[in-house]
């Protein structure tokens, strides 16, 4: 009977051991029914470490956060408990019934899958205004606003859109990224430089806020009617205060992700009035001055002069054409050279544009150039205005006489006038310089290069043999290679931590990875064994001082705590120096 009891007890112990070693991999969701304006959290949990984790495609949802990875490793009464979790935060795209498909992972050579989960998305629900809810606090403390200078401009009148991010005084912003940038269809647009913008103090809805100008854009509408300005949408990492406090009494901060949008803006563009519109109007809108000048008024035949037609002022300078110059046929006219000296500010385009004509008279005589007019729409008076230039007379003093038109004053005729197109490469085929070289016969055989190439294989063969033996010896040292790889990785992350000084989250993540990889190299343990008790016992076995061990554990705890508490640059520098010093002491003391 005792023999039978012993066997039954042994079988039960083996069964419990097998069950405790059984691999589990499952998906857990925060809720299976939610509103279209709510967020869903899904955790993929396993009780043993695995590789090649593949999440599902999340059809019907947008991933707004994750994957976030967490590892829990503890020992209770000599029994090890391990849990690894991949977390995602999802936002539904629309109402309906959806299925989150299977995720897969490879654990000890076997592939494990989660079960599909059905999710019901309903219409938007009223969220409770819980003052302790970080998501609610973030929604109340972060606002993205698009300020439009004018919502009912005329066609081709400048307007500006300024995007400002308002943040409450007790709320912090780590970083942001643009999810959707506005496309200014039916507008001529130019973004202004916002580099170096500083945080300013202001008010939003009557309350004190800090704000930062993210973008400034100048727009010129090119169509009439209602035009849409698409929204700017940002994904922002926000730190909001909680009711928890640290050991010093300061409020702890919690980081949440918040999507904010400036919203659509509608601009009602008015057409320019038809009453009084000049026939030669080309679309100029603004406040301008107009002038036509000649570089000289007296010259000889075959000499050249320049006639410049210019417009200066504020308005859509790049969006209209200048009037053309009308010249007598006895003057050869080259195609004009167009120049622009325009800068764009928040008030629109400012500067000047001009067309410069090169003119060459062929005959002696006086050539009057009639005045030219320029029409534009004045925004101040909301009426059309016309500017005219003065008459110019070109006096050609010396040169042949145009006998065919002497009696008919052919100098003022425009019949048969042709423009001359200048080609600067018309004489390019004529070579003005030569570079002759002597032709000498050369032979490759028995040259220095010939002998070097001949002897190179005989020199390379023994060198390759030596290198191969050293590589084989190094590859055979499996333990040494593992230590060297971990050492390089630890140095890499410690270097990344130094580069990330001033960026709290990136710095402490890099520092923690450096410490873990150093331990893996020095103590020959895996990530799953990196518990504080295990680290302490192994370092004691290596005969490391108790104070050094405590300092090392304290640095690891600081990495965990620092992500959730306000930290300044001085504290980060002290933690970095302390980590480097502690690693050096462990290297010296460990046997």
Short description:
The protein is 25% helix and 38% strand.
Strand content: 35-45%
Assembly state: single chain
Provide a count of the helices.
Answer: 8
User: Which regions have little confidence, pLDDT < 50, spanning 5+ residues?
Assistant: 13-20, 405-418
Q: Total domains, how many?
A: 4
SS-based class: alpha+beta
Mean of residue pLDDT values: 81
Label the overall shape: extended
Q: End-to-end distance, in Å?
A: 54 Å
How is the biggest beta sheet arranged?
Answer: 6 strands, mixed
Radius of gyration: 40 Å
Helix proportion? 10-25%
Number of strands: 31
State the main characteristics.
alpha+beta, Immunoglobulin-like, 4 domains, 6-stranded mixed β-sheet, signal
Explain what you see.
The chain is 25% helix and 38% strand. The chain has 8 helices and 31 strands. The relative contact order is 0.07. The model is unreliable at 13-20 and 405-418 (pLDDT under 50).
């Amino acid at each position: 009977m005792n023999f039978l009891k012993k066997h039954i007890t042994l079988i039960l112990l083996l069964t419990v051991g097998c069950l405790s070693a059984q691999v589990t991999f499952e998906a857990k969701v925060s809720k299976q029914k939610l509103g279209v304006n709510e967020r869903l959290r899904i955790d993929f949990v396993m009780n043993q470490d695995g590789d090649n984790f593949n999440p599902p495609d999340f059809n019907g949802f947008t991933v707004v956060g994750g994957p976030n990875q967490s590892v829990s490793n503890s020992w209770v009464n000599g029994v090890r408990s391990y849990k690894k979790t991949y977390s995602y935060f999802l936002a539904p795209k629309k109402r309906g019934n959806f299925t989150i498909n299977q995720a897969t992972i490879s654990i000890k050579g076997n592939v494990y899958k989660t079960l599909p989960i059905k999710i019901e998305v309903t219409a938007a629900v009223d969220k409770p205004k819980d003052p302790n809810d970080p998501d609610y606090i973030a929604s109340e403390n972060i606002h993205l606003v698009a300020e439009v200078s004018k919502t009912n401009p005329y066609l081709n009148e400048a307007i500006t859109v300024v995007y400002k991010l308002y943040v409450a005084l007790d709320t912090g912003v780590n970083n942001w990224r643009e999810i959707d940038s506005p496309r200014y269809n039916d507008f001529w647009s130019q973004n202004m430089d916002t580099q170096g913008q500083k945080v300013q103090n202001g008010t939003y809805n009557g309350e004190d806020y800090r704000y930062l100008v993210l973008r400034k854009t100048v727009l010129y509408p090119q169509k009439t009617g209602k035009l849409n300005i698409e929204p700017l949408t940002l994904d922002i990492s926000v730190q909001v205060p909680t009711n928890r406090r640290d050991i010093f009494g300061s409020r702890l901060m919690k980081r949440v992700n918040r999507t904010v949008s400036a919203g659509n803006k509608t601009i009602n563009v008015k057409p320019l009035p038809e009453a009084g519109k000049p026939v030669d109007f080309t679309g100029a809108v603004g406040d301008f001055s107009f002038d036509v000048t000649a570089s000289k008024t007296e010259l000889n035949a075959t000499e050249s002069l320049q006639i410049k037609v210019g417009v200066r002022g504020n308005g859509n300078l790049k969006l209209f054409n200048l009037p053309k110059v009308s010249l007598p046929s006895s003057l050869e006219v080259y195609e004009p050279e167009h120049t622009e000296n325009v800068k764009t500010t928040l008030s629109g385009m400012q500067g000047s544009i001009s067309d410069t004509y090169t003119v060459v008279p062929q005959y002696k005589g006086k050539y009057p150039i009639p005045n030219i007019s320029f029409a534009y729409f004045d925004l101040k008076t909301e009426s059309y205005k016309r500017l005219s230039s003065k008459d110019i007379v070109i006096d050609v003093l010396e040169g042949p006489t145009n006998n065919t038109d002497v009696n008919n004053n052919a100098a003022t005729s425009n019949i048969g006038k042709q423009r001359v197109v200048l080609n600067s490469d018309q004489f390019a085929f004529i070579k003005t310089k030569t570079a002759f070289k002597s032709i000498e016969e050369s032979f490759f055989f028995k040259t220095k290069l010939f002998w070097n190439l001949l002897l190179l294989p005989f020199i390379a063969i023994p060198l390759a043999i030596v290198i191969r033996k050293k590589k084989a010896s190094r590859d055979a040292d499996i333990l040494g290679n593992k230590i060297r790889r971990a050492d390089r990785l630890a140095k890499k992350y410690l270097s990344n931590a130094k580069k990330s000084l001033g960026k709290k989250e990136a710095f402490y993540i890099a520092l923690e990875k450096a410490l873990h990889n150093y331990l893996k190299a020095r103590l020959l343990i895996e990530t799953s064994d990196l518990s504080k008790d295990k680290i302490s016992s192994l370092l004691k076995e290596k005969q490391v001082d108790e104070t050094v061990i405590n300092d090392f554990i304290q640095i690891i705890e600081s990495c965990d705590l620092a992500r959730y508490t306000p930290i300044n640059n001085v504290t980060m520098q002290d933690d970095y120096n302390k980590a480097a010093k502690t690693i050096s002491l462990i290297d010296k003391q460990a046997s």
